[in-house]
Amino acid sequence: MFNNKRIYILSGLMIFVFMICLVFVFRTNIEDAYYIHMAKNDGQKLFLRAWALTKEEYYDKTLNHQEWSYWRKRYVPNIKTMDDSYIAIDSMLESLDDPYTRFMNPYDFEDQNINIDAKVYGIGINISDIGGRTVIVNVIEDTPASKAKLEKGDIILKINDKDVKGFKLRDVAQLVRGPVGTKVKLELQRDEDKLTKTIVRNEIKIKTVSHDIIEKENIAHITITSFLSEELPEEFIQALYATEDTKGLILDLRGNTGGLLPNAVVLANMFLDNGTIVSIVDRNGKKSDIKAVENNFYISKPTVILINEGSASASEIFSGAMKDYHKAELIGEKTFGKGLVQKVEKLPYKAGMNITIAKYLTPSGTDINKIGITPDFEVEYTKEDYIKNRDPQLDKAIAVINNKVRLATIYKKMFSEDMEPIHP
What we know:
The protein is α+β, with helices and mostly antiparallel strands. It has 13 helices and 19 strands.
């Protein structure tokens, strides 16, 4: 089903897509460089770098119909500290009325990079703030936390003897994380008991692809929670290997808010041999088509995709290509409608920005921004369905796959009968 040549081709495609993205490279003009050089402190330098970057790269040349120098004149003289700079940059970017162009302080930027790298160094738990207490809401399998028998519902009281009541989740996470091989001591409350666990930190792999086989139907159900991880193509191929003997494929993108453009392109190319996968239109109106590359194989089994209002960005790029080329039926609810492309930009002092640099079109030339993609079969998933543990969208997907298999069997039989030799 898969071969090394195929994987090499996909790797080459990913590099090609990254090269297309790098067409939007920032070049500070002389005037902007002068302002940055004349900054009186680090906070001013950071602000001016973000200000110049936005002016030169933002996809809307009018910058939401405003004079961009206003922000430099208003804020620079008043910036004394890094915190001043953070507030000023946030305020400036809010004026664009674009929720996807945003500034990230060092902590937030590191957190985003963790998701892209699909790695974190800690013990393997997900936490949430419930009533001002830090509660473990998930223990990841085969991690230090699971081996130490931490449980969902455990309340973290202290970390290395430090009381964390009232702490922000990000601060609790920072205390739990640490270099591989180091120890962290947790004091926990489980029901009426208090427990102390000393756990050795390790690398935690963040998986974005899971799979199972609907045994009764022999249909693969592969869920992709995000397109953000650089490990996604490899994880997806592994899931395909594990389910390759099934008769059909359900790809579950519900709640998948997107991620890296190259991931969407690489996955689409596993189903397409040629043609445009997505078109990118830059701030100058120039359109660049990202096309499928020829390969020796593609996934041809009957496929459907589950989507909802939480499916966005890279999820829509993939789903849009699959729909336009009739490679899969879409089932569920209309997608979110995010047709803009962001670039991750590293800023000085370990900060960063996500900046909108272009918009994208589906292969048919459709702009889905603020519109979304309408499924072929609209099926609601209600609160009552959740309470009663029902999934009408998945049920519909199974029915569509079974019908496609049935029709394929009929056509194959008709074709084979037509081709039988006639003996006089």
